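Thread: quick sanity check before group meeting

JM: Hey all, I'm pulling together slides for Thursday and realized we never actually wrote out the predicted structure for the chain we discussed last week. Dropping the sequence here so it's in one place. If anyone has concerns about the input, flag it before I start.
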Amino acid sequence: MTHSNPRALFPLKSPSLADIEAMADAAYAALPEAFQRLCEGLVIQVEDFPDEETLDEMDCETEFDLLGLFRGRGMPHRGAVPETGEFPNMVWLYRRPILDFWAENDETLGAIVNHVLIHEIGHHFGLSDADMEDLEQGVK
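JM (edit): ok, ran it. Output follows.
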């Protein structure tokens, strides 16, 4: 059997920003309620790529180097009441680098989005990259 339209065989499309956002929402919703309460006010954004300023600030060689980013002050470093003019803590997930990572690894896209989101939320709780690496090593 031959098909003259290969699109009929493979109608798949790359996940959109909305698709990644839905995965992040599902991962967030799966967090224990106590963690969700502690994340109240945390803003989660999904963008295709980090902006140029972020790439420079993070010393990235390419726009694909950063899967996610936390901006703000971790909970242990914040006061009980936000300072005047203080922005909320924010997490960014970067769709195109996440998709690139997914294409090169043997994990599901949902697992990658979940991992990146949890990692960035760890910074909201005041954990460093080294802290989280130590925690992950202890789990394995």
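AS: nice. The chain is about 45% helix and 10% strand. Strands lie at 43-47, 68-71, 90-94.
JM: adding both to the slides.
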